[in-house]
TrEMBL record:
It holds the Pfam family Pif1_2B_dom. Residues 158-204 form the DNA helicase Pif1-like 2B domain. It comes from the Eukaryota. The lineage of its organism: Eukaryota, Metazoa, Spiralia, Lophotrochozoa, Mollusca. This is DNA helicase Pif1-like 2B domain-containing protein. It comes from Octopus bimaculoides (California two-spotted octopus).
Amino acid sequence: MVSQEENILLQHNGVRLQIVDTTPKRSFLCDHVEVVELTTNLRLLTEGHSDEREFDNYLLGVGNGNISVEQSLGEFKIKLSNDFCLESGILSDLCDFVYADLNNNFTNPVWLANRTIVTPTNEAAQFVNDFLLTRIPGELKIYRSPDTVDNETLYPIEFINKFTPSGFLPHILKLKTKHYIMLLRNLDATNGHCNGTCYIIVSLYDHVIEAEVAFGPYAGSSLLIPRIPHVSQEMEFPFNSEL
């Protein structure tokens, strides 16, 4: 099952015509597709989701044009409810709002799983992570990725250390024990150690990270995470990095 918002494919370095040709609507299979519209969100009908139902109805109202436009802000602009806004533009205030009482809850995986700060770029996410890390007690452990190039004239080490392709970790990785992390590779899918699994760090060694699954059916399961070679798929900058 695929929604219209999820059916766009990516054509690397493609021009408009190439991108259009890769869309499902250009496929010969499109004539055989049956459109089924989902009308009821069953998860929101269960008890304990009143806030989610209210937010769901608000989003539908925005999408259907039922929310009044604020002419003073612009022709097509609406004013968000105060419940959705934090007037302060200071990062520390945002972190205090989302992660209130962090010092007493940073080891609680359920508490952490119900909170998140969404950023437009990985660089911004790393900035927020580093800031929150300063608020968690414990000794800081720093890992650096060893990068090598065949021709340093073409790929200066300084440039490579600043470049973070999608799916890569930053060159300088800062961690603490009891820190909340997410696995980016499938290491042992049979035992639940796969991409997207969340962990709590138990110990930090020079070449290995010991962590436990934070929650879910495999909660408490231990994993030793070694340095893993990463190969960039970016055609513009083909290089290997061991993280």
